[in-house]
Prior knowledge:
This protein has 10 helices and 16 strands. By secondary structure, the protein is α/β, with parallel strands linked by helices.
Amino acid sequence: MNRISPLILLAACAALALAGCFAEPDAERPPNYIVILIDDLGYGDTGAYGNTRILTPHIDQLAREGLRFTDFHSNGPMCTPTRAALLTGRYQNRLGRDFESPLGADDKGLPPDEVTIAEALSEAGYVSGAFGKWHLGRFPPHLPTSHGFQEFWGLGSGDGDHHSHIDRSGRKDWWRNDRIEMEKGYSVDLITEHSVEFIEHNKDRPFFLYVPHLAIHFPWQGPGDEGYRIEGEDYHNLTKLGYFQEDKNPGGKVKEMVEAIDGSVGRIVEAVRTNGLAENTLIVFTSDNGGYLTYEGGYHNISSNGPLRGQKTEVYEGGIRVPAIAWWPGRIKPGVVDDLTASFDLFPTFLELAGLGERVDLKLDGVSLTRLLLEGESVPDRTLFWRMRDRRAVRQGPWKLVVIGEADPELYNLADDIGESSDLSASRPELAGRLLTDLHSWESEMEPNTVTP
């Protein structure tokens, strides 16, 4: 029988230990992922991003302990577009014009041949749960359980009463998997409870937890309010806003909602720590688009987008630059990063960290942020695009081209002018023209769409 020299054994053990210091996550247990997606949270709605009025201690702690992004963008200026891009890693525009705006038709939904994060991660043994607002199909077979998620609690539509869980059409809209199962309680609290239970039930296997909160989307309701929508009534006009028919200032309710979200973040992080999962769990906190500053009918003082121009529905920075935090104790060093990044970058990042980076057949548009997160390596230069209806934008380095309808293109240098106040298209016509050409080339690629003239 051959015997191994003690010196050789000692050297081998040392080499293995050293390799473990720099290795990717344990191959036997890939990292857990938690994506907390807030609805309509503005760039300046939390303390971590400069808000002094709204108290967000848990989100602020997440930012201090993690990596805070200053140039992270939603892939759309409204809800459905960003959700489609985030979950597929691809431009939502590839799915057709229906996915460039909020998805409204009852018979529409995320196409079955689109591979979601949940479906891709299942190859590595992940279990996936979605708790909150889906908005990628209102009814079966378009709900999360048809797209790789084993568990779903929440609403299929774009907005619901936070207490009665009745949608804008007066229908019950609180699902458990693929059937209606109404629950009593505030949406933030219910979503949090199900998320914490999911963590506890799946702590011994890799999981992907998707937490797309309905808050702070209207109707603006705090935890202590009562539901106002009832089944069978129609809420498509301004009554969709809730209690603010006379009072045009919902800022106080929005504050309550953001602070409720902060409490939810605290509970989810606590569940991760309590179950001994912190060192193997990547949490990403972000928003689906910028916040509303004003709303039709004279409503004002809703959200804050900090120094940014514009708001939700617009392709100016206020509509698409959003807060984003990545937290992973022991793996991601605390800090601030200003790399140009976007929602659809999460999919390839999760794949690579799970050891599935070879899935080139997915033809993703996002890029992996793994080296940025773990090593501080900058994301390679690239050009990003946005389009919703007749509103389009191109971003390349600090330069951004905005095209609204038939108006002349506007050119901004965001490094010097984050508020997009000085149009430089007249002084830099060649650059503006090149970016416009890039936009047209991108549009021609977004089948089955046609190029907008």
